[in-house]
Design brief:
Shape: elongated
Number of helices: 3
GO molecular function: rRNA binding; structural constituent of ribosome
Distance between the termini: 107 Å
Helix content: 25-40%
Organism: Oscillochloris trichoides DG-6
GO biological process, one term: translation
Strand content: 25-35%
Number of strands: 9
CATH class of the largest domain: Alpha Beta
Structural class: alpha+beta
Largest sheet: 4 strands, mixed
CATH superfamily of the largest domain: Ribosomal protein L9, C-terminal domain
Function: Binds to the 23S rRNA.
GO cellular component, one term: ribonucleoprotein complex
Length: 167
Amino acid sequence: MKVLLTHDVEHLGKAGELKDVSGGFGRNYLIPKGFAVLATKGQIRQAEERMAAQRRRAEASRKDAQALAARINGVSLHFVVRVGEQDRLYGSVTNVDIAEKIQAQLGIEVDRRKIELEEPIKRTGAYAVKVRLLSDVEPVVNVIVEPEGGLPATIDEGPSDQDVPQL
């Protein structure tokens, strides 16, 4: 019996595929549960049209993602933050901050969940951060975290012996 799958069925196939199954499996399980319909010429034609439309949409989204990747690949994002001892930040730079900086600097809205940052940035320095637009479209932005004032913060330990007037 030939059936056209309407949903993904584990160990059988994905939605839109034409499968040859035993009569009992099709009549007693797949068709009553709504996982498949009997494969007629009309159903097969509709499935092919849906698959073609889906491929066109996927290709269009791939082109959009590649154009977006070309715009943001290699862009440097500068963050000026307050730092404490050993160039550690008060707070951190997160994927939300990076998404907001891309929006402000380039006018491109990027979903924060697509920015691959294993953990928030907590030290000054330069970091290469991937932005996963699609599974194979991953531009890299350069995140540069600098301390306020341009120099690393140092702890003031009070006046030294040379600064104290002699009596």
